[in-house]
Write a structure and sequence with these properties.
globular, UDP N-Acetylglucosamine Acyltransferase, domain 1, alpha/beta
């Protein structure tokens, strides 16, 4: 089944986050997440093998420890032996791609969702089939994390960001722009500190 609103979401175009089709996809993800979380955090192999049920096709083997939050699941692609510690948030209205051997600390947020900044662009009149008496306009841009990246505890990765291979994001950083490979960034907003080779 095709859905124009879903296609717009994945294309980074304005779309309605209140579309019933999106709610259906989120409900499916909730069920898949429950099956995934029924596997103990201590069973790395079991979790790695179960990646395909919740996460994007071709994921893993990788591991996400519980608890974590996720919207769609099928928009999160885990690379080979990528590891995500407890407390992660995946707002995956667009693709979140983690490369191979990515290490993600506790309480990291991957945020693909955003909104137009002008209120008249953000709130629109309701259309037929909308759940609410108004339409909230969403935008979603993919996040890509290269192989061997380390993301420190409490970092936030914002919509549309690419983090290059071998980079390090310091704890509690807010990454709003692309990060060059093999560099260390820190702060809010995250800024270049040095090369990992210095």
């Amino acid at each position: 089944m095709t859905n124009k609103n879903y296609e717009d979401m994945m294309a980074g175009k304005p779309h309605s986050g209140g579309d019933p089709y999106l709610f259906e996809l989120k409900t499916n993800a909730t069920a898949a997440k429950a099956r995934y979380e029924a596997i103990s955090n201590d069973d790395f192999q079991g979790r790695a093998e179960a990646c395909g049920d919740l996460f994007a096709e071709g994921s893993g083997p990788g591991v996400v420890l519980s608890p974590f939050k996720i919207q769609y699941g099928k928009h999160v692609k885990l690379g080979k032996w990528s590891f995500v510690n407890v407390g992660a948030t995946f707002l995956d209205a667009n693709m979140i791609t983690l490369g191979d051997y990515v290490a993600v600390g506790p309480n990291v947020q991957f945020i693909t969702d955003t909104h137009p900044v002008r209120p008249e662009d953000r709130f629109q009149p309701a259309e037929e089939g909308d759940e609410l008496p108004f339409r909230v306009v969403n935008l979603a841009y993919p996040i890509t994390v290269g192989d061997y990246v380390w993301i420190g505890a409490g970092a936030t990765i914002m919509p549309g960001v690419t983090i290059g291979e071998g980079a390090v994001v310091a704890a509690s950083s807010v990454v709003t722009k692309d990060v060059e490979p093999r560099t260390i960034v820190a702060g809010n907003p995250a800024r270049f500190l040095r090369s990992v080779d210095d």
